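step: validate -> pass
step: tokenize input -> pass
step: predict -> running
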Amino acid sequence: MKALHSMFIHRYYVRNTAFFLVVFYLLFGTVQGGGLPRFHYGIIKGFLTSYDFLLMMLAIWGAYALKCVSFVLKTMALPHYALVYETWGVLPLARQRRIAAWIQVSIYAPVLVYNGVAAVIALREGYILPVIITGVFNMVVCLVAVLLYSRRLLHADLEAATPRWLRWLNGHWRKPSWLYYPFELVIRQPRMVWTTKAASFAILMLTFHFMEDARFDPRALMLGVLVMVLLHSIIIFRYRYFEDLYLTFMRNLPIPIARRYGQLWLTYAVLLLPEFILLGVHTARVGAFLDMWMVVSYSIALCMLLHSLLLYPRLGEEGYTRWVFGIFFIVLFMVLGHQTLCCLVLLLVATILVFVRQFPRYEPLMEEEIKE
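step: predict -> pass
step: emit ->
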């Protein structure tokens, strides 16, 4: 049990430290201490009394559940964790499922704890139906997760849930280089893509929901997009590993640095295309086309800056996380201070300077270092 705890639960919380810091800041760092109980009481009362808000909360919890399931299934598929099948996999089915339930409850605990607090408030104030809905939802989520883990133990060679036509297209279509990584993500790591996109869409929908009753303010949109980019930070981090493993040969090709920069820009435009479509639909309603292009440029420039920082030698996940949050707070205060145009210019200048300076000097990691 201690080995399984280390493989799944401990590793999950360590690998998602950045994610939990963002969530902690949004839930506890945006409100002064005295107003914190009222803030959370307002959120809980909101989804207990409004079925639209409740549906949104269930979507957010569902996205987090998908993230949990994706992590466990991906860990079980790693070659150096094959011991799982020789220990956990040989136990009787009933015990297998008890362990699966323990793992799922342990990593899904933040939602269960919040839901438990909401249930206490709901029962005290007589909101019985919302309690039943959230309780059944979380029970179903945990049950489905347990069944998926059991199924993976029985069928260790299951293929990723990628449509056959997409795998065929990936093998037969000669793609431009700026599409290599988006296709790699969709083909090889679909669960990470869908989890990130679900959380990203939930953040944007929440942003649009709060903007409905107020005058259109591009700053609110930019704050939502800032959180959206933060959710993509792990995808940006893994891009370096993908380049070091599969695209090292491209560094020796006679491609001008400006063209490489443009190709990277196109890559992030494709990765964020679903969010841009959603943003376009909502901003078109108020005719804010200039603000839309501003937000698109701002989000891609932010992704480019995070990517360019990875060109510094031996910047590990911990150092990268510190940089991500440092940039997050700087951009946050600039946006809140009505310095959006200045922020965009600074992002573009910083990105170009770092990329042009560091790209020729970067030394790819060895395959053994990446696996560690």
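step: describe -> Residues 163-372 form one domain.
step: cleanup -> pass
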